[in-house]
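ok posting inputs for the zinc ion job
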Amino acid sequence: MTAPSPLTASGGDAAPRDDVPARRLLLVHAHPDDESINNGVTMAKYAAEGALVTLVTCTRGEEGEVIPSELAALAPDRDDALGPYREDELAAAMAALGVGDHRFLGGPGRYRDSGMMGAPQNERPDSFWQAPLDEAAADLVAVVREVRPQVLVTYDPNGGYGHPDHIQAHRVAMRGAELAARADFRPELGAAHEIGKIYWNCNPRSVVEEGFELLRAAGRGFPGIAAVDDVPGVVPDAEVTASIAGDPAQVAAKTAAMRAHYTQIAVDGPFFALSNDLGQPLFATEHYRLVHGAPGAPAGAREDDLFAGIGEMVGMQESARIEEVAE
Ligand SMILES: [Zn+2]
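and the output
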């Protein structure tokens, strides 16, 4: 489901509007469920604070495995009906997080889930993996220039764990940010916009190791337990530059959002499993690496706000736009 954008009502008018939130966060993900697992706390926090949180999901996750046996017929080798079903799951997750602005890259079903690396689905001409980079990036440029976010969140170059759609989502996010800032690129898509800060999702190794110790001690009923390196984006602690700690309401919202992805995720308290039935920790604090823009914390300290240090920049950009409009 795609919620109507709060920004499109102006008919593409580039003038600043009073009813547009001052802080705007854009997240680019590969499949429905990735946003809740990686950024559920962060999305709930900024939405609750009145920021505009915009999620762009690149595929509908048609090649996912289906956990509940009663829904097994949705699978791609049977009815191939997972895409629309996961659209509804994502809409429920967005409601749990309080996020109203969600879009599929290029529209629902524009790019199909490519399956795991090496799968024959990688070669389908409609797969996201086969999409020409600048074509897919242009679909994102349109969103960037409409929403004009100060902060972008996406995956690292390996997509966190090597899934082709996650790698491609990273490429499209980075290329889209670059092209959106170039006034000579597709001017019909809107006025150029430079995103102030770009973050990649990550998980500090010590936190992941501690989470697995708690899981083993709790003895939850998953058939197995995942390995530390099964968690996407595990990095040495020193590489983490920002941490967003969820309060109880935000953690509850993240947990509810993950449960909404019923075909993909089994949640058990502070732990969850994907279709491989291997338990892993559900993180109440989410971590990031700043890869573009100036850090808003002193050297050596982690940011606790993705918009840290961006206030002045926002003011400068807004006044520049007002001058532009006035001319
Ligand atoms: Zn995914």
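notes: The pocket of zinc ion is lined by residues 30-31, 34, 163, 166 (CB under 6 Å). The first helix runs from residue 34 to 48.
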